[in-house]
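FAQ: What does the model actually see?

It sees only this:
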Amino acid sequence: IIEQVSVMLEELMNSKLRQQFLRLYKNLVHKFTAEHPDLAFDLYWSEIFEPCVNWNKNSESQSMSKALLSERDAESWLNRLETIANLGLLQSNLSEKLCDEFLLPLSFLYHHVYQGISPQKTALLTVVRELISSSASWSNQVLEFLSANLGEERNVFWGNGDSGGFMLKHKSQHSIPSSRNISLDPNDSLGGNDKIVEVTIKIIKSLPSGRDDQLSDFFLQLFRDVTSCLSEPEQAENFLDGPADLHQFQVSLRKGLLLDLLCQTFGQKLLKNTTQTIALLKLIIVQKSENPSMEKDELLMISFGILSTYMRDEIKLTESDEAEVKSLLEPLNKINQTSRNDEVAKLSNDLRICIATKINLESLPTLLKKQTAASASVSATLSDIIKDLGDPLIPSRAHAIIQLGKQFAAKNPLVMENVGLLQKILLENLTHDDSYVFLAAVKCLAQISWCNTQKILDRITCEILNVSRKEDDRAKCMEVLVNIMKITNEMLPKYESQIFNCLLKCVNYQHSEMMRVSSLGCLGELCKICKFGILCHIQEIIDVCERTLTEDQSQLAKKGAIVVLANFIESQDKSLFHELERETLRIYRLLKKVTASCLDEEVQHRALQALGVLSGIVREFMFPKTKIQHDIKIL
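And it is asked to produce this:
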């Protein structure tokens, strides 16, 4: 009876009126498969997938002279499979067995067809997708599909037909047998692997909804496969760098590409297994920090992206997970210092700052708890600022620092109570490579320079002299330095030697006009604010200005030198110049020379103003007034 039912099913499918019998056919197959699974597999499904059965046998001897499956029969067979897949017949109690037996040959066939322009790609993808989605262990099936067409040479393989289709051939019928029958684009550096990975992502996206937990497990499994060799130093040097086994290399490459694309496509859905994922991230980061020569930049970039997602507080971490994240501070710092990849170094430093900021923010309970009815809106604003200070996104963090600076300027009492801890966070952000965050932190620190002035000045002057910084950022730091000088005001003489030495080095920086001009402008402000406190450096000031006015070709630098001299003259008590006759005459002669030789009208005008102050004093030096003394003797 079962054999007759099987034959009847075949007749229904092959009849001209099969559209009218599709529902009956579907019910018969479901009933047949559910009640007699073993017989249904042997008598029905094995017949349906007969080409795949022949592919699996991979027989060495082949007496037939013609193909195992002709091109015409292959087309009708695939159309039949597509109909069965669209009817949902692959979703049955035999789904797992069908996947185990027939998914691999179909995957090989899809990899063969995908590279060409075959019209059968869509039908074949439908069948493969239905097979994978019907399996409870779909993650293993996806990896099997991903690594298909890589392996040993086969006796039975899918080949090209004469009319653009495909055939099932034996090596005796083909002069060059090959299991990797894929024509690769010579301009594709990934050898077509990126296209296969894109198709794999499409299959995963088409899976039924409600499988987020399985998706997370699959991601973790894939991540573990890609990083497994890191625990063995001998294999780590060759991983993804061209191992001897080409098959393993191709599989590793495809898995790495799939891992990257999974992160881009599914985001936070992949990160539910927090503890195990963070453990893998730590393994990669620690291994890279201990062995900087290992080329793991691709995996490292993926790890940094995942870690930054955890840092956004959208996924709640346990205390043990937070402790693991905190332990990454030192490895990230090592990667930043030793990595030859600028992008890796920049991202590692960004994450290090983010983690350090998170640690400091944990010590701010008073700032968040002191919420009264009168200051509820202010406290809500501060809560947002505190949250964004630990955000790994650079714009959010920089904006939070700017808003924090406004709170300092307004002398918000809730902020002023924690100024020391917040200052520590700002100093940490001074090491950031991004100009937006760096300049926001510098300007915010200027608002609280009255607190720990020496420490802030040390960092600001260090950043001004840091040649690895952008010149624009260093020039902005000088503007902030001027603000700090104005805030410290009467206390400035205590720090003027440190500031002066920093500016003097920048004035002598011959390779950058911007640095010379900025430092001269800042030096002029120092002379104006510090007044008589700058007299101890008068010789250096005159030497610098003289060299700039006589040797520097930049008109802006010459203007800056004139401003320095003018501010120095205008800020001093006129009686002091009588005590500094030699220095006063040097300045006078220098200004006279500038007015006579300089072609810039603005420079000449500024020099004439300064000369107006000195002319009377110099005239007294050159023509001292004679005092009449009456010699009166009393006889």
